Amino acid sequence: MRYLTHNARRALRSCSVAMTCSACVAFALTALTAAAQEWKPSKNIEIIVNSGAGGAGDRAARVPQRLLQGLPGMPSIAVINKPGGGGSVAYTYLAQHEKDAHYLCNLSTGLLTNEIVGVSKLSYRDLTPLNILIREYVAVWTRAESPLASARDVIARLKKDPASLSFGFATAPGNQNHIVIGMLAKAAGIDPKSIKTVIFASGGAGMTAALGGHVDVWVGTTGGALQHMRGSKARVLGVSAAQRQESGLENVPTLREQGIDAEYYAWRGFVAPRGLTPAQVAFWDQAFARIIKSDEWKKELADNGWAEGFISAAEIRKRLDSEFGLLTTMLGDLGLVTRGAKTN
User: Quick check: bond before 171 cis, omega within 30?
Assistant: First the structure.
């Protein structure tokens, strides 16, 4: 150093300080990144289901629960059914655990439609949506002994007398199943509100009632229809898909094939309480991304009539905003909004 000029020594000191500051900043950023990746659950995890056992929402929660439980280092995971209020009981319970990523709840269109039709004031904007995992079409079916042989028969009966058939569905007014019922009413040229509907707290209880003849037609997800169709207990009259589905539904015509403009699908995923950190969201994002790559998950898709439709945490809010607007318009057009549609 003693051979350098004064200006040269000053320049070198400035350079050293700058390099030291840069190194400090780089170290700090690295530490923050590492910290953001360090969160992991430290106690039992609750997956809350907004309906009773045995229904579509219950199945769509218990399959991921089993696969998540198999991931290395994952603590115990319990599925807790909290039916009631069209799903509002479960979502309200979830909202009470703000900032706690050990609580998850199944996410479906019901969270949006409950807000739109006025069943609940709780919005998806009050929670932390994590993902959408699957798409699930809606099946219209009856017990095997029913005189109804096709969806055309349903439309003919409705045209003759809207009150001559009762329709069962779960779990809340305005949800995907109710939307398809509204589409059937529109195809028959009648007011959707004139149709006799019975709303059940869970698909399991409702399907049991349909098999027992307590409601004439059940409108629910294809997964529920398949389990009874395979046992020759149910006759599927039509599916709300653009084309025929696989996994045992290849011989079931779509509603559109039968001249009925009723094409719609439900989606299912998971939501967490408000206030999760980026690290907590990232943990669950990575965990769900891992299980949907497994062969067991692909088998479950086929067995339950599910269609793959993964949307990650980074994209989910934009998708829900879009769905909210679409559902508000759709429910209004079908006359299913009874308390005034809300806007996003």
Answer: yes
What token pair was written down for 94? 């979830």
To the question of pTM greater than 0.85 for the whole model, the response is no
Contact present, 49 and 61 (Cβ < 8 Å): yes
Four-residue CA torsion sign, 44, 50, 54, 58: negative
CATH class of 45-135+268-329: alpha beta
Partner residues linked to 236 by β-bridges: 141
The Cβ-side half-sphere exposure at 210, using a 13 Å CA radius, reads 34
Q: What are the tens digits of pLDDT across the range 127-159?
A: 999 999 999 999 999 999 999 999 999 999 999
Parts of the chain belonging to CATH 3.40.190.10:
137-265
Helices 56-69 and 278-291 meet at what angle, rounded to 10?
100
E strand residue ranges, the chain? 45-49, 77-81, 103-108, 128-143, 166-170, 196-200, 217-221, 234-239, 265-272, 307-311
Which amino acid makes up residue 71? L
Q: Can you tell me which residue has the tokens 């603590």?
A: 75
Side chain identity at residue 117, one-letter code: V
265 φψ region: left (φ > 0), alpha (ψ -120 to 50), beta (else): beta
- Pick from 319, 323, 311: which is nearest to 109 by CA? 323
Query: Residues 42-90: pLDDT tens digits?
Result: 999 999 999 988 888 999 999 999 999 999 999 999 999 999 988 999 9
Choosing among 3.40.190.10, 2.140.10.10, 3.40.50.2300, 3.40.50.300, the CATH entry for 137-265 is 3.40.190.10
Q: Running DSSP on this structure, what letter comes out for residue 51?
A: S
Distance CA 283, CA 2 (A): 55
